[in-house]
Protein backbone atom coordinates (compact mmCIF):
# COMPACT_ATOMS: atom_id res chain seq x y z
CA UNK A 1 0.00 0.00 0.00
CA UNK A 2 2.86 2.37 0.73
CA UNK A 3 4.37 1.59 -2.67
CA UNK A 4 1.10 2.59 -4.34
CA UNK A 5 1.20 6.14 -2.94
CA UNK A 6 1.72 8.45 -5.91
CA UNK A 7 1.89 11.82 -4.15
CA UNK A 8 5.11 13.70 -4.85
CA UNK A 9 6.20 15.79 -1.88
CA UNK A 10 8.35 18.90 -2.33
CA UNK A 11 11.96 18.67 -1.26
CA UNK A 12 13.28 20.46 1.79
CA UNK A 13 13.92 24.13 1.21
CA UNK A 14 17.48 25.21 1.96
CA UNK A 15 17.19 28.19 4.29
CA UNK A 16 20.90 28.46 4.95
CA UNK A 17 20.35 27.60 8.61
CA UNK A 18 22.50 24.81 10.01
CA UNK A 19 20.32 22.07 11.45
CA UNK A 20 21.07 19.36 13.97
CA UNK A 21 19.14 16.86 16.05
CA UNK A 22 19.27 19.09 19.12
CA UNK A 23 18.27 22.31 17.38
CA UNK A 24 15.35 20.54 15.72
CA UNK A 25 14.31 19.02 19.05
CA UNK A 26 14.44 22.39 20.79
CA UNK A 27 12.42 23.94 17.98
CA UNK A 28 9.76 21.27 18.40
CA UNK A 29 9.56 21.85 22.14
CA UNK A 30 9.26 25.60 21.62
CA UNK A 31 6.52 25.14 19.02
CA UNK A 32 4.51 23.04 21.47
CA UNK A 33 5.16 25.41 24.37
CA UNK A 34 4.06 28.59 22.62
CA UNK A 35 0.79 27.20 21.23
CA UNK A 36 -1.83 26.90 24.00
CA UNK A 37 -3.90 24.39 22.03
CA UNK A 38 -1.02 22.02 21.31
CA UNK A 39 0.26 22.52 24.85
CA UNK A 40 -3.12 21.48 26.25
CA UNK A 41 -3.10 18.44 23.96
CA UNK A 42 0.37 17.47 25.24
CA UNK A 43 -0.79 17.61 28.87
CA UNK A 44 -3.98 15.66 28.18
CA UNK A 45 -2.22 13.01 26.13
CA UNK A 46 0.49 12.57 28.78
CA UNK A 47 -2.17 12.24 31.50
CA UNK A 48 -4.02 9.53 29.58
CA UNK A 49 -0.82 7.51 29.12
CA UNK A 50 0.19 8.00 32.76
CA UNK A 51 -3.11 6.75 34.19
CA UNK A 52 -3.43 3.96 31.64
CA UNK A 53 0.06 2.73 32.57
CA UNK A 54 -1.07 2.64 36.23
CA UNK A 55 -3.96 0.43 35.22
CA UNK A 56 -2.01 -1.87 32.93
CA UNK A 57 0.58 -2.52 35.64
CA UNK A 58 -1.98 -4.44 37.70
CA UNK A 59 -4.82 -5.50 35.39
CA UNK A 60 -3.40 -8.91 34.39
CA UNK A 61 -2.53 -9.72 38.01
CA UNK A 62 -6.04 -8.79 39.06
CA UNK A 63 -7.70 -10.90 36.38
CA UNK A 64 -5.52 -13.98 36.85
CA UNK A 65 -4.81 -13.98 40.60
CA UNK A 66 -7.76 -12.19 42.18
CA UNK A 67 -10.47 -13.33 39.74
CA UNK A 68 -8.92 -16.53 38.42
CA UNK A 69 -9.82 -15.86 34.79
CA UNK A 70 -8.41 -18.66 32.57
CA UNK A 71 -5.71 -17.64 30.10
CA UNK A 72 -7.74 -18.75 27.07
CA UNK A 73 -10.77 -16.67 28.00
CA UNK A 74 -8.50 -13.75 28.82
CA UNK A 75 -7.01 -13.86 25.34
CA UNK A 76 -10.40 -14.01 23.67
CA UNK A 77 -11.91 -11.08 25.57
CA UNK A 78 -8.84 -8.93 24.99
CA UNK A 79 -9.06 -9.71 21.27
CA UNK A 80 -12.50 -8.09 21.29
CA UNK A 81 -10.69 -4.78 21.72
CA UNK A 82 -9.46 -5.11 18.15
CA UNK A 83 -13.03 -4.81 16.92
CA UNK A 84 -13.40 -1.60 18.89
CA UNK A 85 -10.37 -0.12 17.15
CA UNK A 86 -11.88 -0.88 13.74
CA UNK A 87 -15.28 0.57 14.66
CA UNK A 88 -13.61 3.61 16.20
CA UNK A 89 -11.82 4.33 12.93
CA UNK A 90 -15.19 4.81 11.21
CA UNK A 91 -16.59 7.38 13.65
CA UNK A 92 -14.39 10.52 13.99
CA UNK A 93 -15.64 12.36 10.91
CA UNK A 94 -19.29 11.91 11.83
CA UNK A 95 -18.82 12.78 15.51
CA UNK A 96 -16.67 15.87 14.95
CA UNK A 97 -19.14 17.14 12.37
CA UNK A 98 -21.85 16.97 15.01
CA UNK A 99 -20.18 18.24 18.19
CA UNK A 100 -16.74 19.59 17.21
CA UNK A 101 -13.18 18.38 17.67
CA UNK A 102 -12.71 19.38 21.31
CA UNK A 103 -15.92 17.78 22.61
CA UNK A 104 -15.14 14.69 20.52
CA UNK A 105 -11.76 14.33 22.22
CA UNK A 106 -13.31 14.84 25.67
CA UNK A 107 -16.03 12.27 24.96
CA UNK A 108 -13.46 9.77 23.65
CA UNK A 109 -11.34 10.13 26.79
CA UNK A 110 -14.44 9.68 28.97
CA UNK A 111 -15.27 6.48 27.07
CA UNK A 112 -11.72 5.21 27.67
CA UNK A 113 -11.94 5.84 31.41
CA UNK A 114 -15.47 4.49 31.87
CA UNK A 115 -14.67 1.35 29.88
CA UNK A 116 -11.75 0.64 32.20
CA UNK A 117 -13.90 1.40 35.25
CA UNK A 118 -16.28 -1.41 34.27
CA UNK A 119 -13.68 -4.00 35.27
CA UNK A 120 -13.27 -3.26 39.01
CA UNK A 121 -17.05 -2.73 39.28
CA UNK A 122 -17.88 -6.15 37.81
CA UNK A 123 -17.38 -8.03 41.07
CA UNK A 124 -15.76 -11.49 41.22
CA UNK A 125 -18.10 -13.61 39.12
CA UNK A 126 -16.11 -15.11 36.23
CA UNK A 127 -18.84 -14.57 33.65
CA UNK A 128 -19.51 -10.99 34.74
CA UNK A 129 -15.80 -10.16 34.73
CA UNK A 130 -15.25 -11.77 31.32
CA UNK A 131 -18.13 -9.72 29.89
CA UNK A 132 -16.81 -6.57 31.55
CA UNK A 133 -13.36 -7.13 30.05
CA UNK A 134 -14.80 -7.83 26.60
CA UNK A 135 -17.11 -4.82 26.53
CA UNK A 136 -14.49 -2.69 28.24
CA UNK A 137 -11.84 -3.56 25.67
CA UNK A 138 -14.26 -2.89 22.83
CA UNK A 139 -15.11 0.60 24.04
CA UNK A 140 -11.50 1.27 25.07
CA UNK A 141 -10.40 0.56 21.49
CA UNK A 142 -13.24 2.67 20.15
CA UNK A 143 -12.51 5.65 22.40
CA UNK A 144 -8.75 5.51 21.92
CA UNK A 145 -9.04 5.40 18.12
CA UNK A 146 -11.47 8.33 18.02
CA UNK A 147 -9.15 10.34 20.28
CA UNK A 148 -6.05 9.53 18.21
CA UNK A 149 -7.69 10.39 14.89
CA UNK A 150 -9.06 13.66 16.29
CA UNK A 151 -5.79 14.79 17.86
CA UNK A 152 -3.75 13.88 14.79
CA UNK A 153 -6.17 15.68 12.51
CA UNK A 154 -5.99 18.68 14.81
CA UNK A 155 -2.20 18.77 14.53
CA UNK A 156 -2.36 18.48 10.76
CA UNK A 157 -4.74 21.43 10.66
CA UNK A 158 -2.91 23.93 12.90
CA UNK A 159 0.78 22.97 12.85
CA UNK A 160 2.84 24.31 9.91
CA UNK A 161 4.07 21.57 7.58
CA UNK A 162 7.70 22.46 8.26
CA UNK A 163 7.21 21.78 11.99
CA UNK A 164 4.93 18.75 11.75
CA UNK A 165 7.62 16.16 12.39
CA UNK A 166 9.26 18.07 15.23
CA UNK A 167 5.96 18.80 16.97
CA UNK A 168 4.86 15.17 16.53
CA UNK A 169 8.13 13.90 17.99
CA UNK A 170 7.83 16.28 20.96
CA UNK A 171 4.30 15.11 21.70
CA UNK A 172 5.31 11.46 21.37
CA UNK A 173 8.14 11.89 23.86
CA UNK A 174 5.96 13.94 26.21
CA UNK A 175 3.36 11.17 26.23
CA UNK A 176 5.92 8.35 26.54
CA UNK A 177 7.83 9.74 29.53
CA UNK A 178 4.90 9.27 31.97
CA UNK A 179 4.44 5.59 31.02
CA UNK A 180 7.19 4.07 33.21
CA UNK A 181 6.26 6.51 35.97
CA UNK A 182 2.63 5.38 35.80
CA UNK A 183 3.65 1.72 35.78
CA UNK A 184 5.78 2.27 38.89
CA UNK A 185 2.96 4.11 40.67
CA UNK A 186 0.49 1.40 39.68
CA UNK A 187 2.76 -1.33 41.03
CA UNK A 188 3.29 0.46 44.35
CA UNK A 189 -0.42 1.18 44.74
CA UNK A 190 -1.27 -2.40 43.80
CA UNK A 191 0.84 -3.65 46.72
CA UNK A 192 -0.31 -1.06 49.23
CA UNK A 193 -3.83 -0.10 48.21
CA UNK A 194 -4.91 -3.31 46.49
CA UNK A 195 -5.27 -4.41 42.87
CA UNK A 196 -8.97 -3.68 42.50
CA UNK A 197 -8.67 -0.31 44.21
CA UNK A 198 -5.75 0.66 41.98
CA UNK A 199 -7.77 -0.27 38.88
CA UNK A 200 -10.68 1.87 40.03
CA UNK A 201 -8.45 4.84 40.88
CA UNK A 202 -6.61 4.71 37.55
CA UNK A 203 -9.89 4.46 35.61
CA UNK A 204 -11.37 7.41 37.50
CA UNK A 205 -8.28 9.50 36.78
CA UNK A 206 -8.50 8.56 33.08
CA UNK A 207 -12.12 9.72 33.06
CA UNK A 208 -11.20 12.94 34.87
CA UNK A 209 -8.78 13.80 32.05
CA UNK A 210 -11.86 14.64 29.99
CA UNK A 211 -12.41 17.54 32.40
CA UNK A 212 -8.97 18.89 31.48
CA UNK A 213 -10.02 18.96 27.84
CA UNK A 214 -13.33 20.56 28.82
CA UNK A 215 -11.60 23.51 30.51
CA UNK A 216 -8.70 23.82 28.07
CA UNK A 217 -8.47 25.64 24.70
CA UNK A 218 -9.20 22.29 23.03
CA UNK A 219 -12.87 22.45 23.99
CA UNK A 220 -13.70 25.43 21.80
CA UNK A 221 -12.42 23.80 18.62
CA UNK A 222 -15.11 23.05 16.06
CA UNK A 223 -14.86 21.15 12.81
CA UNK A 224 -11.49 21.12 11.06
CA UNK A 225 -11.13 20.75 7.34
CA UNK A 226 -8.63 17.88 7.34
CA UNK A 227 -11.12 15.42 8.76
CA UNK A 228 -12.59 13.21 6.01
CA UNK A 229 -16.02 14.02 4.70
CA UNK A 230 -18.68 11.39 5.28
CA UNK A 231 -19.93 9.74 2.12
Describe the structure.
This protein has helices at residues 21-34, 36-56, 59-66, 71-89, 92-99, 101-117, 126-158, 164-176, 178-192, 195-214. It is an all-alpha fold and 231 residues long. The longest helix has 33 residues, at 126-158.
**What general form does the structure show?**
globular
Straight-line N-to-C gap: 22 Å
| Main pleated sheet | none
Q: What is the arithmetic mean of pLDDT?
A: 87
Number of helices: 10
* Residue share in helix: over 70%
Q: Spell the H/E element sequence.
A: HHHHHHHHHH
Structural class: mainly alpha
Number of DSSP strand runs: 0
Quick synopsis:
The chain contains ten helices and no strands. The protein is mainly alpha-helical.
List the helices and strands and how they pair.
Layout: H1 21-34, H2 36-56, H3 59-66, H4 71-89, H5 92-99, H6 101-117, H7 126-158, H8 164-176, H9 178-192, H10 195-214
Amino acid sequence: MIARIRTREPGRVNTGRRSSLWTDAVEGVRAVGRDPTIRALAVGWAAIDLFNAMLEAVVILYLTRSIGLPAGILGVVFAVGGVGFVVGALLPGRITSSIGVGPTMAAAVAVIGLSDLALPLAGHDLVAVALAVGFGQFFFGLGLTVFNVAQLSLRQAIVPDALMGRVGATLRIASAIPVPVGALIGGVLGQTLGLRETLALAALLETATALWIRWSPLWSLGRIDVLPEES
